[in-house]
Amino acid sequence: MVKRALRMTCSAQMHTNIADSGQRTADRKRKLYVSSATGKRCTLNADSGFTMIELMVVIVMVSLFAMLVQMHLFGLLRKSTFRAQVQELVSTMQMAASAAAQSDRRYEVIIDIPEQRYMLRQITNPDLSGVLEEEIIVEDVFSDNCRVAYVQFDDGESTSEDRAKFRAGHSGWAYGGKIVLLDEKGQPYSIVVNRLNRIITLEKGDVELLQPKNKDDVPF
Questions:
Q1: The model scores a pTM over 0.70
Q2: How far apart are CA 177 and CA 154, in angstroms?
Q3: Model confidence at 49, in pLDDT bands (50, 70, 90)?
């Protein structure tokens, strides 16, 4: 009788455990069903998708901003490139005048309009038409956004299809004049060479060149 009572007790406990396990499983299923019914899982999916859209929008905005900055910097670079080239030519001519004033040597700045280039050389041979390789001090080429239009000397002569030469000696420039350059928009700038005071100036526009006066024209 005791053994039979034990078996009945164990059987009752097993049925109870199975019932509890089934109840827990059913509870979990109901929770999942309620979670799906309330849309919590859908909310998580929607939140993930919205975050991705926000990220894409931010990336597009940053890309556009970077492109605008790049275009702005490129425009500034082109503008500064023109001014840098013009200033380099001005510095080269100032170098020639200063070096000639401090010595007995002669220097020459050659503006090659057809080739759109220039050079500074020290004159060492009597043949002024020839340029020796060892005479060249500075040599450079103009870019597309900095072009030489023409050169005019203070004696009235000008050229737009040939070489123009400015020679400097101990007493100053042999001739004064102006070098007219065009930027990428076609706006003119003038490098003015004053042979009386050796000063090289850069002025905006195609400036009028002052002609040197004869001694008889000076009233004092």
A1: no
A2: 5
A3: low
